[in-house]
């Protein structure tokens, strides 16, 4: 099952770090961009090629020290088909390197439409008997705002094809409380969503004891993560907001269970654009990303061990 694969890689690499592949063209080193722009001009194709080249180098430098990557599709989609080609190739390359790929797509719609999303991002399409995979990755992020029925198509695919999903529960952004913290019958909305995720997760439990149906819980809300951990003991958390959004290793400690498992922590800009930090040059962007991913891994492991939560 998806979750067993993820936990296996976490233990193998001794790392809970997810590298967010969110390539912002303005931050991609000039040495990468120049080559592509010279060859293809100022075109969408040039950007697609630059993104792919950049991502491959990052993957080459981190694949042996992290369990997973999370490309956020918006950074690719904005460049149309050329961007989406780069997304597909990035996901393929990461898989070839043994990484779990979490497609950050945040989808969700009425059942029949979710089914189409699910075919695209988890399953496949059948063209007159010929099966094609389009964007298929190991796991995706989904938005539950339209209700539990909109998640069913994804769950079907998860159980049939050993895939996974992370449902938005308490997001990392400043405004997440505006709707998610509203109270209904004595419970916050995000708590109601957490109960829903915990319940539907029971049908996708792996051998490791966790579910392939996980939750997104922001690193920027430490207290909430504590209560959510208790509410959803078998749910794996995908925790964004580390680094660039201010989250630290101390902030995410409650996302983990006593077994030191239960959460993967994402950092995107903080890792992939670490070459901007003091002591690096553009050429060394891969090395800078690796150093930063190792720093993050060690900082998280240190806090886990200090709290008696070693998982390896
Ligand atoms: O689902 C997500 O990954 C997500 C949920 C959330 O609550 N907050 C959040 O920042 N994210 C994503 O996590 C990544 C964070 O990027 P950095 O702030 O650069 O580390 C982006 O891809 C966001 O879209």
Would you give an account of this structure?
The protein is α/β, with parallel strands linked by helices. It has a domain at 2-13 and 104-306: Aldolase class I (TIM Barrel). The protein is built from twelve helices and twelve strands. It has helices at 2-13, 30-40, 44-62, 74-77, 80-96, 111-121, 152-161, 177-180, 189-201, 222-231, 269-272, 285-306; strands spanning 17-21, 68-71, 100-107, 125-127, 130-132, 139-142, 164-170, 183-184, 187-188, 211-217, 235-239, 263-267. It has an eight-stranded parallel barrel, surrounded by eight helices. Strand 4 and strand 5 form a beta hairpin. Helix 2 runs antiparallel to helix 3 (44-62). The longest helix is centred in the last third of the chain and has 22 residues, at 285-306. The radius of gyration is 19 Å and the shape is globular. The protein binds orotidine-5'-monophosphate. Orotidine-5'-monophosphate binds at residues 20, 22, 72, 104, 141, 171-173, 216, 218, 240-241, 243-245, 266-270. Its EC number is 4.1.1.23. Belongs to the OMP decarboxylase family. Type 2 subfamily. Keywords: Decarboxylase, Lyase, Pyrimidine biosynthesis. The active site is at 106 (proton donor).
